[in-house]
Amino acid sequence: MSNTNSEFQLGPNEIGIHEKLSFGKSLFYGVQSVIALNLFLGIIIIASIMQLDIVDTAILITLGFLSMGIATFLQAGFFMKYPVVQCTSFTILAAFATIGLQYNLATAFGSLILGAVILILLGVFKLFSYVMKVIPPIVASVVIIVIGINVMYTAATNLVSTAKAAPHVATYFLLAAIVFCLIFAFKALGNTRLKIASFCARAGVLMSIVITTVIAALMGQTDFSSVATAPWFALPPIGHYGFPQFQLQPSLVFVVLYIIVMVETVGNWFAISHTAKVPITKKEIDRGIIGEGLGCLIGAFIGTQPVTSYATNCGVISITKVYSRWSAIGAAVIIIVLSFIPKVMYVIASLPGIVMWGVLLALCTSIIMSGLQSVNRYKINERNVLVIGIPIALTLLISMFTTDILGMMPMFWGYLFSSSICIGTIAAIILNLVLPKQKGAGDGSEDEEQHDAIDEPIPEDAV
Questions:
Q1: Which of 70, 278, 322, 381 is the most exposed place for a label (fewest CB within 10 A)?
Q2: 196 belongs to a structural domain
């Protein structure tokens, strides 16, 4: 279990990225990833925004699981070959739901195809590194904050509207508060030296959902009647929402969003490489881009949202010390199997909406804090204040744009402005390019050569 690179010696209880695990161990460690990543959250948010019924929500979750499982198997087994489990990206939620509401889900799926093909081509022709050159670490850090702010606004507004529409408003706010507090309580326990610390860190979100749902059931605020009639086994209904329909303007919006997602994803890969004590190479990044694009392309034809690598992947392996990509392959098998069990999908689809919005609000808090901690590593001079501050302000402003405002814009701009993440990121990139650099700007751009190194280990401050 030792690495060939002397600078990256593994400890006695650590398992290297390419060390093969038995089928049983792969499944065992894969279960931990499946629990920790809460794969269903992004799908439920899309279903909630689009106000899908229980049946359509369960089907969307089913197809999402199938897509995530296939994408994970391809990425961990053949392309990136890292312990990465593919999940729904929060970056695309608002734009995807907007297109689905404006047209239909078939058009939303069709809008994913062009961007996925472009990602594959960027990987095949090794061009993505040129895209990364215009996005130094400080811009990537701003992107994380922008994502957190956008999704937090979505969570907060939907939480309030869900509670206001309920017959017992105070009860709904109480449930949201309970799940919110439980998540941070488990997070705090996960940082202790108690024997249950690792369990709390891995399963804290899931346990918070279970506990709060039980409380909601005792209050009479749940409805799991559809679970009883759902079968235990059925083939995933691929193409349930129709064959993907192509529309140019929403497709162009997703091209931009894919690039933003990949900036975040590549940052996650760097973090995983550092945690797993292996140097990441340009070749691996290019393969990962191909795998990411292929996973999104397959998802579009299956009938589900695009997938990407979560930052939580790094958190899981840092706790278990199991860096082997075979744990991700085991997780992929489990996720695919779950997509053939409708009863489980209906249980997920029946979770109280107010609980899920409370969960998302808590997770967004962590996302924003992660971005702020990352930004804190750079000098806050006049230039960087603008690079950081203006995108955040634009994200807050555009998050408040109503459908009426978006409807008055030309169609392409309406789709583009439906994603404040997209506008905030574009603003950060443009500001970073046009504002004159100060000597010792401290934006991380001076470390470009380190980030581009092909066979050199990634330094700790690059993660």
A1: 381
A2: yes
